[in-house]
Design goal:
This protein folds into 2 domains: about 10-40; about 50-185, Roll (Nuclear Transport Factor 2, Chain: A). By secondary structure, the chain is of the alpha+beta class. The chain has 5 helices and 10 strands; from the N terminus they run H-E-E-H-H-H-E-E-H-E-E-E-E-E-E.
């Protein structure tokens, strides 16, 4: 009886014909179906190094546009539903709100942005997720503002999240803060 249980046979009706299937045949069929399913679920291979370079190139381009104060060019690198968390201000969501932030920074007459640099243009702090659709970067930035009291400097840091959308990397979120409570005179240490 035990011998018969080990050699269990299943009767399967296909197209009106009876077929006998041994336990080994059934196991083979199940394993084949699982293998096919797993192969179909496998994501395409992703080259982390090339994706990191792609993020670095986009980061360099958006930083150049920011340094040139070219808002239309800057906005090409932002996701439509992006979030910005600027220092001392409420969170902003969407490209229209972020565009207004840039306009405010560039048009301010009491503290006119004169110069901007960021370590993001040559960052070694870019990490791309194994999924290949999200990355982050962190580093430092430097703002120089022209004021009635002379040039002021504001050093700070940022955390930037990139998202791959339709094959290109876009800024999905950024948070940036100052290292000091307020900008200091540029030539204070001289």
């Amino acid at each position: 009886m035990k011998k018969n249980l080990l050699k269990l046979k299943l009767k399967i009706m296909i197209s009106g014909k009876n077929f006998l299937m041994t336990q080994n045949h059934l196991l083979f069929l199940v394993m084949a179906l699982i293998s096919i399913s797993l192969l179909r679920c496998k994501s395409p291979s992703m080259n982390v190094a090339s994706e990191t370079e792609a993020v670095r190139a986009r980061s360099k381009a958006v930083t150049a546009a920011e340094s040139a104060m070219n808002i239309p060019e800057i906005m090409k690198y932002w996701a439509k539903d992006a979030i910005s968390q600027p220092a001392g201000m409420p969170q902003m969501k969407g490209t229209e709100a972020i565009k207004k932030l840039y306009q405010q920074m560039y048009d301010d007459t009491t503290m006119k942005l004169k110069e901007f640099t960021s370590s993001s243009s040559n960052s070694s702090n870019i990490t791309v997720a194994q999924s290949g659709d999200i990355a982050y970067d962190y580093g430092t930035n430097r703002f120089v503002f022209a004021t009635s009291k002379g040039d002021m400097i504001d050093m700070g840091k940022y955390l930037l999240v990139w998202k791959k959308i339709d094959g290109d990397w876009y800024v999905q979120a950024i948070s940036f803060t100052s290292d000091a409570a307020a900008p200091a005179p540029l030539n204070a240490g001289k």
